[in-house]
Amino acid sequence: MLKPLHDNVILKKEKAEKETTTASGIILTDNAKNVPSYATVVAIGPDSKADIKENDKVVYKEYSGTNVKLDEEEYIIIEAEDILAVLA
């Protein structure tokens, strides 16, 4: 298990939705469609002052954080300030 330090937060990436195909046969993945970045909060560092808690679903800045793969699961270690919103 990962334990974040300082004000870092560990997020578990949401599974990608299915690919879509345009009328001309081009396959678009979620990355190509500019879909917002959603994740679930797994752990919060001891110095974080963000108003989030574990299991919250959040939107975070697209190109921030460090990607980590552990036990076939993908996680992102991100600074708390890079979390933009909590999904209600």
UniProtKB/TrEMBL annotation:
It holds the Pfam family Cpn10. SMART domains: Cpn10. It comes from the Bacteria. It is found in: Cytoplasm. GO terms for molecular function: ATP binding; metal ion binding; protein folding chaperone; protein-folding chaperone binding; unfolded protein binding. GO terms for cellular component: cytoplasm. Keywords: Chaperone, Cytoplasm. HAMAP family: CH10. Heptamer of 7 subunits arranged in a ring. Interacts with the chaperonin GroEL. Belongs to the GroES chaperonin family. Together with the chaperonin GroEL, plays an essential role in assisting protein folding. The GroEL-GroES system forms a nano-cage that allows encapsulation of the non-native substrate proteins and provides a physical environment optimized to promote and accelerate protein folding. GroES binds to the apical surface of the GroEL ring, thereby capping the opening of the GroEL channel. This is Co-chaperonin GroES. The gene is groES.
